Amino acid sequence: MTDWRARLLLIAAIVRKDLRRSLWPWISAIVTATILGFLLAPAAFAIALPRPTAFVWFDSTLRAFYAIAALLATITLGLTFYAGYSGEVTKGTIRSIILYPVDANDVLIAKLLSSLVLSLGFSLILFFGPMAAFFVSGLYPFGPFLAVLLMAVLMAFLALATGAFLAHVLARSLRRMVVSPTGLGLLFMVFAILLTETVATQIGLQIITMGAQSQGRILTQQDFLSVVATARAISVLSPYHLGAQLLAGAFGIPTGFPDVYVVVPVAVLVLLGGYLLGRKLYLDLLIQ
Amino acid sequence: MLVQAAGLVKQYPRVRALDQVSLEIREGEVFGLFGPNGAGKTTCLRVLSGLTEPDAGTATVCGVDVRARPNEVRRNLGILFDLPFPYEDMALGQYLTFFARMSAHRGAAARERASWAMNLLGIPHHVHSRIGKLSMGERQRAELARVLMAPAQLLLLDEPFSNVDVDMRIGLRSVLREWVSRGGAILFTSHNLLESEAIVDRYAFIHLGRIVAVGTARELKETLLAPALQLEVSDVERAMAVLETVPHQTLGRGGPGLVHIGLLARGDAPKVAKALVEAGVDLLEMRSVGTMEDVYARLTRAGYGFLAPPSPPGGTA
Asked: For the whole model, what pTM was predicted?
């Protein structure tokens, strides 16, 4: 059996094991989505029945739904990866896996993939469940909303994977796991949200408001514009910003060429470096 | 040669876990690695299985260079560490099927392999039981089942018989012996030296990261223990009188009908038998005395200090 095929089979075995764990998170997600769905259903039918109109995407609607999807993706992906990776390291069960011919990349890739699948499942339930009535009534189009959710999950995954593989780079360089793939992955996901134009603008406004109050003056139009410009400039660091631009293009909202020149090269570089250095990691790093 | 290690060194911040360790393990042998807690046994197993990077030295395991391809080494190994961390929420059948897949068995073959292992270890009735609900002995059997499913050439077994009842120990020894007879090898660690004599072919004693003695039980006993015999005779009083004429170190009664004699040289044993027979004393049984625990104790007295209390600060013990 070729080496890469043997490794894929090992990764598949770990993913399969992770996907067959507890039923309780699924039951919780379904119950939560169902309750919220029932609560929101009257509103959906009240809007839809007298005056059904075609849904139109514009920048602020995209931002609102994309923000919900991004938060959901961050939470579900973060929790599933934490439970799958750090949970195994903390409980010690990872010691059983590393007795087999896996390397650090195989373990990390398997955990990322199983988190992605679980996160997709939970996000689908929690995103579409509460708004089920809006789709059934025809108020919201299912396909574009699915695209919004998938893009959010994909971008959260890109942030998580980049952070996790950066932990491999650091571990190999410093010869010890100074920060775990979970820790750095979650940090990258949080920063991916904080660096979006919307959140960065809000944070910037809070900061300059406090500054203005301490100086006894009020905010000017110039202050506001400078914050917006700064937030727009740093948002190129966020994968969510890239995802939003791609979605906006797909939905016909003019945004110009997507800002791929930061996120994509950095992610490719870190993922490649992390993979190559991860092959040389000794797995006792995972034994606490 | 399945294992060839030379000059392995592993230095942790406060302790030198391996200090110029060299080992050779051949096909078809059970190699026992013994020593007190913290001597370096587990570090040695981890280095040989590619889990821990050695600071110096070379090691080839099943033809794979451990330092060059640390993760490839485990393709040929079945590994059991003394403190397993199983998935307690998984059913036994599910657990073993997962590890059968990790051992390169696919689809139905993985389930068949898991059933085979459960039957071998006498736990098929627990197929649907959660690991967390099993007794410690049953968990140990589950771990041994996991290891035996691997398509391995070498088994690294750290305390494999702990928590296992006597019947199962006897059964397991024959399973491992049969496995070795097919060309594999076992690197075995334990604190139970008496039991190890039933399975181990060659011994290595490790202390403070150094291998201090290597050899078969016979070689080690001959080298390190004074030759001694336990004799079962028809007349103890006459036997004692006769044996006073044979060169010896110690002579004493060992119980009803038993005499214990410590010889000056191993070659003196025939002289003992001859003297007794010529004097008309019936010699019912004669056997060599000395266990691997005696070897361990001898190594202790030789200054390796296995059992010595720690030195007081600023002084010597």
From this structure: 0.87
